[in-house]
Amino acid sequence: MLTLQHIAKAYRVGALPQPVLRDAELTLHAGEFTALVGPSGSGKSTLLNICGLIDRPDSGHIHWQGQDITHHNHAEWTQLRRNAIGFIFQGFNLIPVMTVWDNVAYPLWLTHTPQAEIDDAVAAVLQAVGLTDMARKRPDELSGGQRQRVAIARALVKRPNLIVADEPTASLDQDTALNVIQLLRELARSYGSAVVVATHDDRLLPFCDHLYRMDHGRILPVPNQINHVQTPIEETA
């Protein structure tokens, strides 16, 4: 789905550039769940921004479904991001004045999808995350787990090729976090989406197909993958 080759990125701090990514390489596959772990400042968020076509590397190459898009212009990146990439942010980033339904529909409005198609897509994904009955509520009427389910629905509604998630369980208690992340994993597989998650949360690791540790801007594969947990999803918290 997405391949990063020899990616380098630095930010200027005062007069000197501060390297954040060094010769980073990563491949993400459809239907697979990849986690990035590492301490703050190790480059996880910067790498997510590059995966999500929000930020450009200083050097290296980005391949999308086999095509080198490194030097595509801003408009081309924006169109690809809107059509094919879903985002799940730390803190949910839901629009408080909008209903659950409208928050989920928002990415489709940006792509000028016909209203009938929006209605069908939103209804289907809300059913998938178990929030059909919450469609007319606003985010402040929901629990943390329910708000994260709305964020998952919003990310999945356009059936993206790639989902980029930054600390998706940071504000959730253990039971809710496990239910939410298993739901994301199972829905991503059924939708055929690749998922890349940056996290400090070790509770996510049993759900990963691939695990990488970031260390001073480099991506290091972690051997001996933990066996996947196959527990039933409980009703939403």
From TrEMBL:
Residues 2-236 form the ABC transporter domain. GO terms for molecular function: ATP binding. CDD domains: ABC_MJ0796_LolCDE_FtsE (cd03255). InterPro entries: AAA+_ATPase (IPR003593), ABC_transporter-like_ATP-bd (IPR003439), ABC_transporter-like_CS (IPR017871), ABC_transpr_LolD-like (IPR015854), MacB-like_ATP-bd (IPR017911), P-loop_NTPase (IPR027417). Keywords: ATP-binding, Nucleotide-binding, Transport. This is ABC transporter ATP-binding protein. It comes from Saccharospirillum mangrovi.
